[in-house]
Write a structure and sequence with these properties.
This protein has six helices and two strands, in the order αααββααα. It is mainly alpha-helical and about 210 residues long. It folds into two domains: about 150 residues, no CATH class; about 45 residues, no CATH class. The chain starts with a helix and ends in a 10-residue tail after the last helix.
C-alpha cells in the first residue's frame, strides 16, 4: 500500500545500524589482529638474533623451561623439527651406546638444543558503548623452529661440566672457591673457569 515504504524503512533501521556497526567492529578487530601478528613476528625476529634461554646445567630449575613472561618463550629441546630429528638420529647413536655416562651425555646435549621460539602479542581497540558486550582485544602468536645454532646457543663444555665431567669440575670449584682466593690468584682462577668451562654464568658475567 502507498506509504508502506517509509514504514518498512523505519522498521529496518535497527537492523541496518546493527549490521553497519558489526561491520565496523569486525574491520577494527581484523586490523588489531593483523597489527598483533606483525608485532609478534617483529619480536620473533628481534629475539631470534639474541642469546637463548638458560641451559639445563647444575642446579637447573624446571620452572625455567618456559622463560620469557612478557618476552620470548624459548624452551630448549622442544619443537617439531627436533621431534622429527629424534627418530633419525637416535637409532644410529643412542641405541648403540651401552655406556651410561655416554647415554647421559647424549641426553643432556639433546635437552639443551635450542628448540622452538614462540611469541604472543595482544592488541586492544575501542568501540562504541553498545558493543561493550563483545571482546575488544585480538591475540596473535607466532612460532619458529630451527634457529641458527651459534656457539653461545649450545655450549658443550657448559653441558659437560654438569654431566660427564662434573667430578673434575667440582674439584675445581671446591679448591678454587669463587670468593675464597687471594687477589693475585683471582685473575688466573677466572681465566681457568672461562677457558676450560666457559663458566661466565658462575662468575656472574653472563652466559
Amino acid at each position: 500500500m502507498r506509504g508502506n515504504a517509509l514504514l518498512e524503512f523505519l522498521l529496518t533501521i535497527p537492523i541496518i545500524v546493527f549490521v553497519a556497526g558489526l561491520t565496523i567492529y569486525m574491520s577494527m578487530a581484523m586490523l588489531a589482529k593483523q597489527q598483533a601478528l606483525v608485532e609478534a613476528r617483529a619480536d620473533m625476529y628481534k629475539w631470534s638474533h639474541g642469546a637463548w634461554s638458560a641451559m639445563k646445567l647444575e642446579g637447573w630449575d624446571p620452572s625455567l623451561s618456559a622463560p620469557g613472561v612478557g618476552g620470548p618463550n624459548r624452551p630448549r629441546g622442544y619443537g617439531d623439527d627436533l621431534d622429527r630429528l629424534q627418530p633419525e638420529v637416535a637409532p644410529s647413536t643412542i641405541a648403540k651406546i651401552s655406556s651410561p655416562e655416554a647415554r647421559d651425555w647424549w641426553e643432556r646435549i639433546w635437552d639443551n638444543l635450542p628448540g622452538r621460539f614462540k611469541t604472543n602479542t595482544t592488541k586492544t581497540f575501542k568501540t562504541a558503548p553498545m558493543w561493550n558486550f563483545i571482546e575488544k582485544s585480538a591475540d596473535a602468536d607466532h612460532t619458529r623452529d630451527s634457529s641458527a645454532w651459534h656457539f653461545d646457543h649450545l655450549d658443550i663444555w657448559k653441558i659437560a661440566r654438569s654431566g660427564p665431567l662434573s667430578e673434575v669440575f667440582n674439584a675445581f670449584r671446591q679448591n678454587l672457591q669463587i670468593n675464597d682466593v687471594a687477589p693475585h690468584v683471582k685473575p688466573t682462577r677466572d681465566d681457568i673457569y672461562r677457558r676450560w668451562w666457559h663458566a661466565g654464568d658462575i662468575l656472574g658475567q653472563g652466559g
